[in-house]
Amino acid sequence: xxxxxxxxxxxxxxxxPNGVAMTFFFAFIAATLGITYWAARxxxxxxxxxxxxxxxxxxxxxxxxxxxxxxxxxxxGIAGLVATTGFxxxxxxxxxxxxxxxVLFLVAEPLRNLGKYTFADVVAARLxxxxxxxxxxxxxxxxxxxxxxxxxxxAGSLIRLMFGLHYETAIVIVGAAMIAYVLxxxxxxxxxxxxxxxxxxxxxxxxxxxxxxxxxxxxxxxLFAAAAQRYGDAVLAPGRLVAKPLDAISLGMALMFGTxxxxxxxxxxxxxxxxxxxxxxxxxxxxxxxxxxxxxFVLGFGAMVLVGPDAIRQVEPGxxxxxPLLAEFLGGRAFLGFIAAVAFATILAxxxxxxxxxxxALSHDLWVSVxxxxxxxxxxxxxxxxxxxxxxxxxxxxxxxxxxxxxxxFMVGLAFxxxxxxxxxxxxxxxxxxxxxxxxxxxxxxVGTVSTLVLIWLSPTVQVDVxxxxxxWFPLKNPALVTIPLSFAVxxxxxxxxxxxxxxxxxGRMERQKHLGGAA
Amino acid sequence: MIxxxxxxxxxxxxxxxxxxxxxxxxxxxIVLYFGFxxxxxxxxxxxxxxxxxxxxxxxxxGAGVIVCSWLLTWIYVRWANTRYDAKLRAxxx
Lengths: 520, 93
Fold this sequence. Notes:
The structure holds 2 protein chains of 2 kinds.
Chain A: H1 19-40, H2 46-51, H3 58-69, H4 72-85, H5 87-95, H6 99-114, H7 119-124, H8 129-163, H9 167-214, H10 220-231, H11 245-258, H12 263-268, H13 275-306, H14 309-315, H15 322-371, H16 378-402, H17 410-432, H18 438-458, H19 460-463, H20 480-497, H21 501-516
Chain B: H1 4-42, H2 44-48, E1 50-52, E2 55-56, H3 57-92
Antiparallel strand pairs in B: 1-2
Helix pairs in contact in B: 1-3
């Protein structure tokens, strides 16, 4: 390996039409539409549409959870961050995993035992339906919308960069495929799209990892040593990324507690037969996601040594093309095509899961529970769910086009912050605190959502990075450090001020179901 | 027939045990991850120390956080599959 590799721009075919990528991509679309056709014939009731008939096995759901969670941002973004900053990028690799044990210990099983389709089912179980469902829909839809914008804009830019397609064309293709999966195949099709995508992403990353390691005697330490030899020992040590400890802690809190409040992740626990299956599925998911993030260590440093940080930044300043460039270096255009198609499939699967959870909030929480007060037959519920899917899908396409060229990277962090500050406190308090009341639930969810949105607007993330103002009023880049405790505090205080005897009594009746199940 | 009062006392015992395990393991996860973040923030030279060529303490700890997260879920699943499930079954007897 000559030291020149790092200085010379790589002879890359990224951005040119790639026949292999197109072939893989259309094969993926064809296969997933085939799955959708199969699933559509089995989607007859709301239980099928929202929860895949509760027939998904723990291993399948583990893969599907991993598929829902591992976005293109984690694959391309983290590999790029490690390739260009070294150790600092690894801080993200660990941060994205630590929410999963919390999901298992606090949320997965009681959620499965107490709810039917959405996390609002659990919060509203012993409280007043209408105000709780309205507040929960606010938290769910804010999380879903922000996450969707980030994914759609990422999809458009990524596909333009890798396939040479127009941004708008790419967005419309993603939107159309995603609407087809959810509209016709419901949760069953969405689950299998996630499983196929997770399998592709994990095997793509694994092949890439083995190819990198084969150049270093299958020894990761030799790879890291080569990186340190070329770019200095500093790449193996913490650098400038964590300049402010409070920023790192705040982001860490959003990641750790936000995962347990993501609507599309929580919804997956209703697809398995019982709480025990929910428990096992988190164990599988944590193992798969952990293995994936460990591989990002090798992919990132592999791209740093074999392609070079400067060459990566020349292709795309954000470093997002590190993994595709590495694939091209090691396996030629064909392998680049495969990895590009995997990245596309990844985005497609994540937006399908998001859209389904948003549709569930609109139809199950708002229409059926609030507007119709639970008096809607299966045909009407399915129809509303499909109209909501269609509406959300079109909205996602429009938002993707509206936010073209905008810096939306912060929106994923923001979605986690809302999930951690609005959804997570309400879920945990309703399941584990007898004294929680309707007033407490509504205030904690509304305050959690609104305070997160206001503080992120006032933070350096928007004021400095997006609006280019010199300073920001609120010092933290991610507000979770303030908004999570705030949401818990107002929920507890409001419950103590307006104590409700009958809601506390209902907690006693709920306790048995929380452990033994029986809701659905 | 079990006395309803006895049944509800046993349910409360199961709930308390489940809550205790959940809190201890969540606490372990918080200590593990935020301990790592605080080391990154306040002990940068320490984490940069090389244990072997190519392996800094920080990288070993980072990989360790991932492996330990998974181990904690394994500990919980072990506990739940044996102790918790057995107690739940006993509730219905």
